[in-house]
Structures are given as structure tokens and as C-alpha cells.
Amino acid sequence: MGMILGKISVETPKFEVIKSTIDYEIRKYLPRVIAQVTYDPAQFKGNKDGGFMVLANYIGALGNPQNTKPEKIAMTAPVITKSSGEKIAMTAPVVTKAGEGGEKMVTMQFVLPAKYAKAEEAPKPVDERVVIVEEGEKNYGVVKFGGVATEQVVEEKVDKLRKSLEKDGYKVIGDYLLARYNPPWTLSAFRTNEVMIPVE
């Protein structure tokens, strides 16, 4: 019932709020380990979040974990989606990054629990499409919003956030992330989403 009503009861990445305004927050995120998969959304026959299943299998969210230990890995939130100017698919705690150079590839990421401080500490994936990477400390401009994170809503949030950050003197140093904290069956009014733009 809690997931339908938007209760976030899983681990989330640690961060420090550096600045808070009416329009956004500047957050410093601590280093973290990420499991990611890069794929062509067309290969999943209309399911734009097909990479989610590959990562869910790696951590054992839907059965036996597909890693060499095999060790179940706790689900975390958010699912993050990363874009480089392309329109991207939406999910729950995963990161999706559109490919550079115009190809329509997507990279989806799960942030692994904090107990995995280094990439080599995480169980090795059986599926070679799953890659484990470390992300260092990073600052983001973040805006939180509810409802369904449609492409149009996300584009509007990204545009407004980027303009606000640049107006306030922040240098944008990369593409935006879309962070979704709830599974797809969460009622729209109770969903938590964030648009995150890396800044310095």
C-alpha cells in the first residue's frame, strides 16, 4: 500500500544541501557505485524501460540474482535517467543516458546500496551488458516535482532549471538526470521525481 501512495522506504543516495532557493537546491552528492546498462530502446519492442529488467535481474529483484556470488542486492531509489539532448524513457530508481553522437542508445542506472563503497566490492554481473562504475562526489542543481514525468514535463523542468542556474552564476557541466523514486504503479499524485543538472 505504501508504494501505491508514494512512500519511499528504500535507501536513497546521501547528499548535503549547499543552497536552497524557491526554485531549486544545490546538492553535493557523496561518491557512489552504480550498475548500468546501455541499450537500444527499439530492441525491447516498445518497452522504453527494457534496461530496467536487465538491472533488476542483476540485483535479484525478480528472482535469483544474476551475479557471480549470487547475492541479492537491495533496491534503492531513485532510478536515474541521463540524457544528452535526446528524448528519454522514464522509470523508477534508475539512470538513463541517451547516447552521444546522435545514436538512440540509452544508459539506465541503479545506484547500489552504500555498503558497496568501491566497484570491485559489488557482485560481478553475469550479464555482460551490466557494467559497474564508480561516480565521485558531484554537485547538482535539483528541482523536485510530483506527477508523471512525461517527456514534455521533464523538458519544461530542465529548461527552467538550467535558466535559473545560469542566471544565478552556476556553470552547467553536463547533461541532466531524471530521478524517479516510485514504481510505475504508484498513484500519480503521490509520485516523487527530480531533475538534476551537474554544476560547478
From TrEMBL:
<dbReference type="InterPro" id="IPR006917">
    <property type="entry name" value="SOUL_heme-bd"/>
</dbReference>
<dbReference type="InterPro" id="IPR011256">
    <property type="entry name" value="Reg_factor_effector_dom_sf"/>
</dbReference>
<dbReference type="Pfam" id="PF04832">
    <property type="entry name" value="SOUL"/>
</dbReference>
<protein>
    <submittedName>
        <fullName>Heme-binding-like protein</fullName>
    </submittedName>
</protein>
<comment type="similarity">
    <text>Belongs to the HEBP family.</text>
</comment>
